[in-house]
Each structure stands twice: as C-alpha cells, then as structure tokens.
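chain below, 212 aa
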Amino acid sequence: MAIRALVLEDDPFTRISVVAALHKYGYQVVVDESSPSQAVLRAKTARPDVAVLDLHLGAGATGLDVAQALRRVNPRIGIVLLTSFEDPRLLSSGLPAVPRGTIYLTKQSVTKMSQLKSAISDSLIFDSHLESIQLNPAFGSLTDVQVETLKLVAEGLSNSEIAIQRSVSQKSIEQTIARVAKALGISPDSKSNQRVHIARVYFRSIGAKTDA
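prediction:
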C-alpha cells in the first residue's frame, strides 16, 4: 500500500514541485493544501502517514502549529519541515516546540528531490525519544535571547537601541553579540565587520540571498 502524504506549502510553485516529486516516488498525496486550517481539517479524514510542511505560512498558524495538531490526531505521523529557516526561532520567538522525530530540511540545502524522499523515509522511522533532526547545529547552540539579538543586529539596530528594547545594559548586549559571533564562527577582529557578518549569516539562514 502506498504511503499517504500531506503537503502544506503556501508557495504554489514549491507545492506543485513537491507534490509532483512525491507522486514520482510512489507516494499517495491525500492532502495538497496552502491553508493550515484546511490541511488539519482534511487530515482527520484523509489519515496521512507523513506530512511535509512549510514553516512560514504567512499571518496566522505556522507549520509547527500544524505539526502539533497533526500529532494530536495521529501521534505517530511522520513530520518533515521543509523551510527556508535554519532554525524556527529565526521566524519568531514563542513558537511551539518542534515535535520529536521531526526531520528539519532547509529548502536551500535541497539540490535534488531524492533528498526529500530520504527525509520522508527517516521521518517514518518514528521513535518518541528521537530528537528532531536539524541541519545547522550552530543555531541549536544559541539561546532564545541570543537568537533574538541576532535578528535585531541584522535589522540594523545599534547596541544601545537593542539594550533599550530588551531593558538591559549596553554592556550586556555587547557580551551577547560576542557570544553569538563565537557560536557562529565569526572572527572578533573588527566589531563593525562582525555586525555585517552576523547580518549576512542571519539573512542566509532565512533563505535570503546576500552579497559575497
């Protein structure tokens, strides 16, 4: 019997490409949606074995919200998050946790659709004790505060502006930025260049193109 798949993606071209690839590899796509609420509703009757979810779906629910809802319906459903964001916290703070056993796949890392097939296969080997698999361990080492500071630096805020926004001292922000740079492997040689490099890492990590 063919594996039943749910695809949730708000970009039409990406969704069509993913659905076509799944058909090619013999999966039965039982839900093909751009709407989070409709995807969850249809999943209750379609009973997919695996879900391929985008993380950022515009205003409202995220792919993580959908993943959590799907796991409540079927605790053993395989989850593949296919997203431009190398860490969910780069999209927003306070998101639901990544469900255990989730395969986290960045769109910029996919050079052939067989990688998606492998990710789906891995997600179906369900183990409730398995940590979610993410591709960038550097971001995994950052705290929520450090990720938020990284985003604010990339948005062009000065240390004093970030300090005011976070209600901490400017010295504290300097220390946080230094720890972020170290975790990301950015040299501390030049503080001005350091901020530029941090911004470039951030934009690359959300799938945005940056100048070399």
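The CA atoms of residues 102 and 132 lie 5 Å apart. The longest strand covers residues 28-33.
thats it, cya
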